[in-house]
Write a structure and sequence with these properties.
By secondary structure, the chain is of the alpha+beta class. Helix content is 41%, strand content 18%. Strand 3 and strand 4 form a beta hairpin. Helix 1 packs across helix 3. The longest helix is centred in the middle third of the chain and has 13 residues. It starts with a helix and ends with a helix.
Length: 158
C-alpha cells in the first residue's frame, strides 16, 4: 500500500496524466494528495509518467539472460560472460558487445553461434540485421563466440 500511495503522489504531480484527469472527474485529487503528503512527505522523482513506468516495465520483461561462451583459440581461456540483453537486439549489436568483451578477436573476425543441444554445431547467427528473437534466443541461451581466423587456418591445414 505504501508503494502504491507513493506512486500515486508521483503520478498526481503530472497534470497531463490521463489517470489524474479521470480521477479529478470523480474525486478531490488535491485533498488526497495533501493527505498522502502528510503521511509520506514530498516524493522524490515525482516526474515519473505512466508512459515512462510502462516503458521500464516492458523493457524488464523483454530482457533475456544469455551466456556468451568464448570458443575461439585466442579467447578460449576467458570466462563465460553472462549478460541480460533485449530479445530485440540485433546480431550486429551483439557482435559489437562481444568485441568489447573479448578484445583479442577483432569485430570483423567474430563468428556467433547459438548452441542447440539437438544440433552438433549450433545455429550460425550470421544475419547482422536480424533480432535475437528471430533465432529463438531466450533466457538461458548459450551463444558461442568464435574466431573466423581459426576456421580459415583449419581449412588450410587439410
Amino acid at each position: 500500500r505504501i508503494a502504491a500511495e507513493r506512486y500515486f503522489l508521483g503520478v498526481a504531480s503530472q497534470e497531463s496524466s490521463n489517470l489524474v484527469r479521470s480521477l479529478k472527474e470523480m474525486t478531490d485529487v488535491a485533498a488526497h494528495v495533501e493527505r498522502l503528503k502528510g503521511i509520506h512527505g514530498d516524493v522524490v522523482g515525482g516526474d515519473v509518467t505512466e508512459e515512462a513506468q510502462a516503458s521500464r516495465t516492458s523493457l524488464v520483461h523483454s530482457l533475456v539472460e544469455v551466456s556468451l561462451r568464448p570458443v575461439g583459440a585466442a579467447i578460449v581461456d576467458k570466462p563465460v560472460a553472462t549478460k541480460k540483453v533485449p530479445h530485440t537486439m540485433t546480431v550486429g549489436e551483439l557482435r559489437t558487445l562481444c568485441a568489447a568483451l573479448f578484445k583479442q578477436v577483432p569485430l570483423d573476425r567474430l563468428r556467433l553461434q547459438l548452441a542447440d543441444p539437438s544440433l552438433p554445431f549450433g545455429i550460425p547467427l550470421d544475419e547482422e540485421a536480424r533480432e535475437l528473437g528471430f533465432y529463438g534466443v531466450g533466457d538461458g541461451a548459450e551463444i558461442r563466440i568464435d574466431d573466423a581466423q581459426d576456421w580459415s587456418e583449419s581449412c588450410k591445414n587439410k
